[in-house]
Structures are given as C-alpha cells and as structure tokens.
Design goal:
Length: 146
C-alpha cells in the first residue's frame, strides 16, 4: 500500500464522518446523558481491605499456614458466624419467608466478601458494601474469628 492509498482512505473516512456528523453527535450526547443518569441511579459500593499474616497456627497438614487460614476463612463456619454476628440477613434485607433465602444470602456474601493469598504469604480480606462503616465492621469480625 502506498502513501496515496493511505491518504485516500483517510480522506474517505473523514468525508464519511462529516456526512454523518449529526447522527454521530446525537449518539455521543445521548450516550453521555444515559451514562450520567445510570451513575446516579447505581448506589456506590465501598471497599475495605485488610491484610492478615498467619502466625501461631498449629501444623495440621503439609499445607502452609496461609493455605490453612485461607481455608478457614472460606469455611461455612466462618461464613455463618459472620452472617449471624453482623446480622447480614437484616442488613441485606433478605426475606426469610422465601424458600431460597439462604442461597441468596450465600450469593451476596460471596459477592461482597472475598479472601485471597498475597505474594508475601499473607491473606487479603476484601469486603464491599453500600455502608463504609459496615465494611470495616465485617472485616473486623472476620479478623476476630482467628
């Protein structure tokens, strides 16, 4: 492809844009308006992160203390304790009369609370919620279980 072909393609492209400038302008403006409206409708979520380094863990297996603590944090016992202690059923406004309320509660828990190993053999606890104070309280509650 030579320089003249490139110039011709650019010229054709610019002519196409100028020909449809009204349509493109309407699309750009409407996209901006819609995204602004949506950003005001969606409530913000706050995030709290805590880093825990496992110490004083008795060796139960060949797994590292980090892996052991990670499995503990991901256990049903910890999840149920946090749900009960922090009253997450009421906080998330879950209707307990519905048959599948526990599935919904577990889904919301998994979406908002996560545990992951870090590069330096520690564990990162991440909690997301609409209430910044609640994120801190949940993270503190999880840390206190160890």
């Amino acid at each position: 492809m030579n320089n003249n072909d490139t110039n011709l393609e650019i010229k054709t492209f610019l002519q196409l844009i100028l020909k449809n400038k009204k349509t493109l302008l309407i699309i750009i403006i409407s996209t901006g308006i819609i995204s602004t409206i949506i950003s005001y409708i969606i409530p913000p979520k706050y995030k709290t992160t805590a880093i825990i380094y496992p110490i004083h863990l008795s060796p139960y297996s060949e797994e590292s203390p980090t892996e052991q603590l990670l499995q503990y944090y991901n256990s049903v016992a910890v999840r149920d304790m946090v749900i009960k202690k922090m009253n997450l059923i009421q906080h998330y406004k879950i209707d307990t009369t519905k048959q599948q309320y526990k599935s919904l509660l577990n889904y919301i828990y998994r979406e908002n609370i996560s545990f992951s190993p870090t590069l330096y053999e520690s564990i990162e606890i991440t909690v997301r919620d609409k209430d910044p104070l609640m994120t801190k309280k949940i993270a503190d509650c999880i840390i206190q279980t160890t």
